Amino acid sequence: MAIAHAAQGQKLDIPRLGPVPAEARTQTLFKTAELEVMRLVVLKGKHMPTHSVARSITLQCLEGCVAFTTMDRTEQLRPGQILFLEGGQKHALEGIEDSALLLTILL
Fold first, then answer.
1. Would you tell me which of 25, 64, 82, 101 could form a disulfide with 97, CB atoms 3.0–4.6 Å apart?
2. Under CATH, domain 24-106 is a member of which superfamily?
3. Between 21 and 16, whose confidence is greater?
4. Cα(48)–Cα(36) distance, integer angstroms
5. Residue 85: how many CB atoms within 10 A of its CB?
6. Would you say 59 and 82 are in contact if contact means Cβ atoms under 8 Å apart?
7. How far apart are CA 87 and CA 18, in angstroms?
8. What is this structure's pTM?
Protein backbone atom coordinates (compact mmCIF):
# COMPACT_ATOMS: atom_id res chain seq x y z
CA MET A 1 0.00 0.00 0.00
CA ALA A 2 1.36 3.44 -0.89
CA ILE A 3 1.96 5.95 1.87
CA ALA A 4 -0.38 8.93 1.64
CA HIS A 5 1.56 12.20 1.68
CA ALA A 6 0.16 15.66 2.30
CA ALA A 7 -0.75 17.70 -0.76
CA GLN A 8 0.76 21.07 -1.51
CA GLY A 9 -0.73 23.70 0.80
CA GLN A 10 -2.34 21.07 3.05
CA LYS A 11 -1.97 21.69 6.79
CA LEU A 12 -0.81 18.69 8.86
CA ASP A 13 -0.92 18.02 12.57
CA ILE A 14 2.19 16.30 13.90
CA PRO A 15 0.88 14.23 16.82
CA ARG A 16 2.70 14.06 20.13
CA LEU A 17 4.06 10.69 21.16
CA GLY A 18 1.43 10.36 23.87
CA PRO A 19 1.33 7.95 26.81
CA VAL A 20 2.01 4.82 24.73
CA PRO A 21 5.09 5.67 22.63
CA ALA A 22 5.45 2.09 21.36
CA GLU A 23 2.42 2.82 19.15
CA ALA A 24 4.10 5.88 17.65
CA ARG A 25 5.89 5.36 14.37
CA THR A 26 8.12 7.16 11.91
CA GLN A 27 6.16 8.51 8.96
CA THR A 28 6.80 10.53 5.83
CA LEU A 29 4.78 13.75 5.89
CA PHE A 30 5.70 15.25 2.50
CA LYS A 31 7.72 14.02 -0.45
CA THR A 32 8.52 15.68 -3.75
CA ALA A 33 11.29 15.13 -6.29
CA GLU A 34 13.50 17.56 -4.31
CA LEU A 35 12.43 17.20 -0.67
CA GLU A 36 11.29 14.67 1.92
CA VAL A 37 9.97 15.62 5.39
CA MET A 38 9.51 12.91 8.01
CA ARG A 39 8.37 12.62 11.61
CA LEU A 40 11.12 10.38 12.98
CA VAL A 41 10.37 8.45 16.19
CA VAL A 42 13.36 7.28 18.25
CA LEU A 43 12.40 5.48 21.46
CA LYS A 44 14.54 5.50 24.60
CA GLY A 45 17.48 3.13 24.28
CA LYS A 46 17.01 2.58 20.53
CA HIS A 47 19.87 3.27 18.14
CA MET A 48 20.01 4.38 14.54
CA PRO A 49 23.42 3.10 13.41
CA THR A 50 26.02 5.26 11.70
CA HIS A 51 24.97 6.14 8.17
CA SER A 52 25.01 9.04 5.73
CA VAL A 53 22.57 10.64 3.32
CA ALA A 54 23.63 11.85 -0.13
CA ARG A 55 22.24 15.39 0.24
CA SER A 56 21.81 17.93 3.07
CA ILE A 57 19.47 17.32 6.00
CA THR A 58 18.00 19.19 8.95
CA LEU A 59 16.89 17.51 12.17
CA GLN A 60 14.66 19.34 14.65
CA CYS A 61 13.70 17.88 18.02
CA LEU A 62 9.95 18.16 18.64
CA GLU A 63 9.92 16.28 21.97
CA GLY A 64 12.16 14.06 24.05
CA CYS A 65 15.94 13.96 23.78
CA VAL A 66 18.36 12.15 21.46
CA ALA A 67 22.12 11.81 21.34
CA PHE A 68 23.29 12.84 17.87
CA THR A 69 26.80 11.78 16.91
CA THR A 70 28.71 13.25 13.98
CA MET A 71 32.21 14.52 13.26
CA ASP A 72 33.60 12.59 16.26
CA ARG A 73 31.39 14.34 18.82
CA THR A 74 28.03 13.67 20.43
CA GLU A 75 25.47 16.37 21.21
CA GLN A 76 22.10 16.09 22.92
CA LEU A 77 19.26 17.42 20.81
CA ARG A 78 16.26 18.67 22.84
CA PRO A 79 12.89 20.27 21.97
CA GLY A 80 13.27 23.54 20.10
CA GLN A 81 16.76 22.66 18.83
CA ILE A 82 17.64 22.04 15.20
CA LEU A 83 20.80 21.02 13.39
CA PHE A 84 21.99 20.90 9.80
CA LEU A 85 24.34 18.47 8.04
CA GLU A 86 25.83 18.61 4.57
CA GLY A 87 25.29 15.56 2.39
CA GLY A 88 27.63 12.60 2.89
CA GLN A 89 28.32 13.37 6.57
CA LYS A 90 28.24 10.22 8.70
CA HIS A 91 25.96 10.41 11.73
CA ALA A 92 24.09 8.24 14.27
CA LEU A 93 21.22 8.68 16.76
CA GLU A 94 20.33 7.19 20.12
CA GLY A 95 17.14 7.80 22.07
CA ILE A 96 17.92 9.22 25.52
CA GLU A 97 14.16 9.64 26.01
CA ASP A 98 11.23 8.64 23.81
CA SER A 99 11.61 11.27 21.09
CA ALA A 100 9.94 12.72 18.00
CA LEU A 101 12.04 14.60 15.46
CA LEU A 102 11.30 16.48 12.26
CA LEU A 103 13.72 15.29 9.57
CA THR A 104 14.08 17.17 6.29
CA ILE A 105 16.11 15.56 3.50
CA LEU A 106 17.04 17.22 0.21
CA LEU A 107 16.72 14.62 -2.54
1. 64
2. Jelly Rolls (2.60.120.10)
3. 16
4. 18
5. 18
6. yes
7. 33
8. 0.86
